[in-house]
Amino acid sequence: MSVDVSKLAVDGGLSVEPRLLQSLVDCLPDGAAICESAGDRKVVYANVALEQLTGYNREQIYGRNLRFLQAHDTEQEGLAKIRDALRDGSPCRTVLRNYRQDGTMFWNEVTLSPLRNAQGVITHYASFHRDVSEKLRLEAKSESRDAAMSTQTMLAYLRDDKLTGLLRRPYFEELVRRDWALAQRESRRLSFLVFDLDSFVQYREVFGRQGADQAFRRIARVIGGCFRRASDLCGRFDEDQIAALTTGMDLPQASKLADAVLGRVRDLAIHHPRSPISRYITATAGVVSLVPAHDYTPERVYESALRALKDAKELGRNRVVSRECE
Question: Is 205 found in the same domain as 128?
Answer without folding.
Answer: no
